[in-house]
Amino acid sequence: MKVGFLIHSLAVSGCRYRVLQYIPFFREQGMETSLHFFMENWKARRKFYDSLRHYDLFFIHRRLFSPAELWYIRRRAKKIVFDFDDAIMYRSSSAKHPHSLSRRIKFAYMTRRVDFVIAGNEFLKSEVLPYTSKVEVIPTSIDLSQYGSKEPVNHRGPLTIGWLGSSSTLKYLERLMPTFESLYQRYPHFQLKIVCDQFLEGGRVPVVKKKWSAQEEEADLRSFDIGLMPLTDDLWSRGKCGLKILQYYTVEVPVVCTPVGVNREIVEDGVNGFWAQSEEEWTRSILKLMQDDNLRREMGLKGRKTVEKSYSLEINAPRLLNVLKKVAQG
After folding, report:
1. What is the span of the domain harbouring residue 175?
2. How far apart, in Å, are the Cα atoms of 62 and each of 86, 90, 274?
């Protein structure tokens, strides 16, 4: 089976976790794969689309095409699978109004005309169902073979509350800065570590500003004692697939998160992490973890088991391969 994968770039986390990490497994199973990047130039795109007849299946990650362009692709591709892991039919959390007619038209047209849709969570699947029943949820997954267990930490320095993500999601963390100021007055034995390409100022709270790099990502995750995933409760956030939480869990770091969307499924409140919405809940949950070494260790271990059970590459790579085979075979 010959499959062409279309992604945005190697640097985008969704591309890495929903496409790139599967390719070695696919090749081991005898699939012939090729990787392609979306091109701005129409002439170059059209040349690529004209070559799609050589593939048994064309896999598109996240890209919404105009009806005219998808029509051109559809006439040349034998089979098409569309995979997405964000609420791309809506505007982002920073937009004044979430609904977008142009996005909805593209999304509806595309999901009706591809051969199969893979959604990152149940909320995203629910957005597909009005247009097609050919959809399955395969969650964003982690290759656990790349991560070992977290070594026990004997703390002599400050605890590290960590956040890792893209600058587009930094706005969620910014809302917690007053909480950190309040916490620091009660427990001035911690620092906030931000791993990103942009940063926030912490006032009196010490902030470690670390530029993200793929090579150092695991080490940065291991340096956290507590991981955070704050969100706002809106349509865009409900489509998120909880990657931050999964990354924290792979290195056995306990989590405090906003219970929005898939976060509610991954994190069981009081078992493998805490839910928090109000400033009081964030303060109470973080403080409880800061003051109890054993609780952090216990919740971190349970978090790792959560990934092993439902969100690992070992579990979901065969599922994805099975979907692609079924679609290709028609």
Report:
1. 145-310
2. 8, 13, 30
